[in-house]
Amino acid sequence: MMFEPVGDDEVELLIERLADGDPEVRRVALIELANTAQPEAVAPIAKAVEDPDAGVRLQAAISLGEFDGFEAAEALGIALVDADARVAQAASDSIAELKAPEAAAALLPLVEHVSGFVRASALRGLKALRHPEALAIGVKAMKDPEPGVRAQAVGVVGYLKAEESLPALIAACRDADAEVRRTAAGALAFSKSPHAADALIGVLADEGWAVRECAAETLGKSRFDQARGPLAGLLDDDVWQVRVKAIRSLGQLKAKEAVDRIAQSLHHEVSNLRKEAAAALGEIADPAALPHLEALVNDPDPDVRKNVRWALSRIGAATG
Amino acid sequence: MPLANTPTSVPVLVDAEKCIADKGCTVCVDVCPLDVLRISEDTGKAYMKYDECWYCMPCEADCPTNAVTVTIPYLLR
Questions:
Q1: CATH code at position A32
Q2: Would you say residue A23 lies in a domain?
Q3: Residues of B with CB below 8 A from A32's CB?
Q4: Is residue A4 packed enough to be buried (19+ CB in 10 Å), middle (13-18) or exposed (0-12)?
Q5: Do B64 and A59 count as a contact with CB atoms less than 8 A apart?
Q6: Which of A125, A201, A270, B54 is the most buried (most CB within 10 A)?
């Protein structure tokens, strides 16, 4: 950690140490070069991704994460195919930190790489760069044979929040891989289109609980009123995590007709679910919930009691 | 009064074999918010000089050679 200004000769000195015969000295020099945050440090660090010592290459991949731009991205692309898995993973993580649009030029060729890990990492890096070709590249990669690549591709496309990507994202909601479907359901959050709502309502019947959970949450966030019925259908889902999100969304949608069914979750053994049910009943603020809530003012969980009292005061104010 | 001559163990342990502080590394010393780690003048390796710890873990996580181990007390786990 270096907060005082760095002199040019100090950077020079550190660059000289990168040629030291001891790999540990080279490694420490890389750490310190990254701490200088000087642009002239990028080229020597970039060269170190081809060091014979794996520890030095690992440090180079980590240190490049402190920089941005084409040169850093290009070197990280080399580290991505390193024989040592730790180096490749560190490079992938550093690529995800890139923000400068110029970095995209180094990542674009990697989208077609033979290795799925490289393709996925390149897409992961492209996501935040908002390259003009990202939409086309992402949509194409959504047909990749590897699920990990498809999930990253959905991330790239979803990040652009473009209405024209809706058909592709909706198609990804029916992907063979659960993680891809979950990412796609989350990515649909930007859209107010009824097609997105229909797709998400379809996902509520997904076999993967994390996918259902995500769709239930997104429907509430996007305030899709037409989802009230289907969400209420999820109130007896086997997985309580799904019910939590369905209840929260029904609260956001002020689903008065679901009050009695939400109230049934007030007696579930999982306190997170009781807490969420009390909060949703407060959001809806329908007097029909009063007897259910009053029965719970002495719940053993303080968070539940807090939400119950808040809900009671909301209903009191609404009927007041 | 008995003398406190029993060696005590400190929560932050540094594997001297792996530590590269003698090559100029000071990562763990720099990241510690309590500033209780030092580089030994005798061995050139990092060690816990003051037995005071928040168990916040950056010394272990940021060590480039995974030489640092923080032992979190049972009751904090």
A1: 1.25.10.10
A2: yes
A3: 24
A4: exposed
A5: yes
A6: A125
- Is A300 domain-assigned? no
The 10s digit of each residue's pLDDT in A59-110 is: 999 999 999 999 999 999 999 999 999 999 999 999 999 999 999 999 999 9
CB A182 within 8 A of CB A208: yes
Between A1, A22, A28, which is nearest B25 by CB?
A28
- Chain B residues whose beta carbon lies within 8 Å of the beta carbon of residue A27: 20, 23, 25, 64
Chain A residues in contact with chain B using a Cβ-Cβ cutoff of 8 Å: 1, 22, 24-25, 27-29, 31-32, 55, 58-59
Q: A202 by DSSP, 3-state: which?
A: helix
Quote the minimal CA–CA distance from B71 to chain A in Å.
Answer: 25
Q: Cα(A313)–Cα(A308) distance, rounded to whole angstroms?
A: 9
pLDDT tens-place string over residues A109-119: 999 999 999 99
Domains detected in chain B:
12-72 (3.30.70.20)
The answer to the question of residue A46 being in a domain is yes
- φ/ψ of A80, rounded to 5, equals -65, -25
Q: What is the domain extent for residue A106?
A: 1-112
Element (H, E) at B39: strand B37-39
Burial class (CB in 10 A: 0-12, 13-18, 19+), A238: exposed
